[in-house]
């Protein structure tokens, strides 16, 4: 009887130890995708997110600028202006963060346009900019959009903006996984949500 009790107790302790080990492993695995957030401290992921989104948002605003003077459906025109209204302040926020962190604010398409060169070859405005980030249009893409005829422009613009938004959502998810600066992570969550809604709206507009 005593031996059976001892074996049972040993088995119970073994099960408890295994369960504790599994819980511990699970906690470590979860921690690899979660960074402790800070209201003041930032990391490399925050810097990369801010720097990339400055250029990414600026290109979206440049795409909105190309809708000016075009014969668009009212819903599309309203969506375009909504994108501008949301992303221009966010560009300013990202730029302010980079300045606070003593990081360089990258050049954007809007810098070129504001210098009085917005109506030329769009490829030239992309020089020195990273078009490899998710959803970023190339200079050739922007040239094609600018040159599109009345019958093609709206569809092309919606398709390109969907791809552009999908890239922003991907970048926002990466920031939420890897970022440390709480305001940046929270803004990333807002971008994922708002641009996800706009993606669905644009898909509906395309029919």
Describe the structure.
By secondary structure, this protein is an all-alpha fold. The protein has 2 domains: 1-32; 39-206, Ferritin, core subunit, four-helix bundle (Ferritin, Up-down Bundle), CATH 1.20.1260. It is 75% helix and 0% strand. It contains 8 helices and no strands. The chain has helices at residues 2-31, 44-65, 74-100, 109-117, 122-125, 139-147, 150-178, 182-206. Helix 2 (44-65) runs antiparallel to helix 3, helix 2 (44-65) runs antiparallel to helix 7 and helix 3 runs antiparallel to helix 8 (182-206). The longest helix has 30 residues, at 2-31. The chain starts with a helix and ends with a helix.
